[in-house]
Amino acid sequence: MSKQLLKTYIRQIIKETLEAEKKLRVFDLDDTLVKTNSKVHITKASGEELYLTPAKYAVYEKEPGDVFDYSDFQGLVDPKAIGWTTKILKRVINKHGTDAAVILTARGSEEPAREFFRLYDIPEIPIVALGNSDPEMKAQWIKYVAKKFGYKEIEFFDDSPKNIAAVQRLKVPGVKIIARLILHWIWIFFQNLFHNLHTNHHVIQ
Ligand SMILES: [Mg+2]
Question: Which pLDDT score, from 0 to 100, does residue 201 have?
Answer without folding.
Answer: 41
